[in-house]
Please model this.
Amino acid sequence: MSSPEFDKKQLTELDKEALISIILTLQQSVEKQAAEIQSLRDQLAKNSGNSGRPPSSDGLKEPRTQSLRKKTGRRSAVS
Model:
């Protein structure tokens, strides 16, 4: 939905009611776009930790966690 473009001369020739109508239309458009932007930001913020998405959908964005265990230098036990 694109709004018509007006130059300054065209706007000065419009009556008050037409200007109010244009302003209200633009305001609705801005509010709709702001809601859409917020929705997209919410989608970007979701990952498998805070939504029902599987971990495989996280992609390569999150680094793998490394083990917090320290190496002891001992060999592993063989049964």
Summary: The chain has two helices and no strands. The two ends are 71 Å apart (CA to CA). The helical segments are 8-13, 16-45. The chain has a mean pLDDT of 84.
